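Journal club prep — side note

Before the paper discussion, L.F. wants everyone to see what a predicted structure for a comparable chain looks like in token form. Sequence:
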Amino acid sequence: MIYTLTLNPAIDLFIETKEMKENHVNRTEKYDIQANGKGINVSFILKRLGIKNIATGVGGGFTLDYIQQELTNNNIENFFVKTAGITRINVFTHVIEKDCEYKLVNPGPNANLADQEQLLKYFDKLKEDDIVSLSGSFSSGISPNILTKLAQLIAKKGASFVIDTSYPEVLDVLKYQPLLIKPNQEEIKKWFGIKQELSLKDTIKLATNLVQHGAQNVLLSLGENGAAFITRDEVYYGNAPKIDALNTAGAGDTMLGTFIGGMVNGLDIKANLQKSIAAGSDTTQSMWITDFKNVPELEKQVKVEKLTTI
């Protein structure tokens, strides 16, 4: 079984408006409300690929009720520890006049130690071949050190850990040999204390460092430059297709969910990376995550190559 884990879920409000003026009533062209959170997005992607999964996490209030109902409506089993606070609402506004996007992201509710212990206890049920895929930021009260607790528990059960979060404490869990880590370019620079701009080659070198220190695989998101996949023996790179970006939220989650799905279904690395990049790009040009209808056409633009020298 695949378990997605979202420690700071959200309802995302996506707005499209012609202009954005100060101290003015800005009328919108359209809007959309979505159950969100990075792990929740991965759950929806896996479901659209026909892969059964369970969405887990922490949250509270009427907003979490909405998220759980949306998951249930889509036949995605879910378990969330209820906190005292209210799950956040984020706002993403696309301004047509400037062709830009404003992102307003709120903090989540406080999850106390009892909430966290209840969540960890839930994962006592893990079995070999299970996968726990953790994505996104953590709600207030949750220390990044929970990554180590989860890694220890998952390793003890013989299950696999997938990590997509920006906290530098990710480096602390490499010794537990997580199945997959998905940093982006800025995250990996931050982990290694690098501030200057890096070339594609140098960024991939940093990713190989993660593998050398224990990660089994690294899926490196490079934004408009595509993505790379690094194993202990091989490095692959794929470019991104040319698209008109509409909404960047969920693109990385789409790529990760698609790649996990490909791993589960036994897709070879090149085909999996190609499909994952195309799927993430389609989400970027959509109001929400891809439905995979446009993915085959986008795949034609993605060329994946095995790099012989780094």
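L.F.'s comment for the group: The mean pLDDT is 92. Keep this in mind when we get to the figures.
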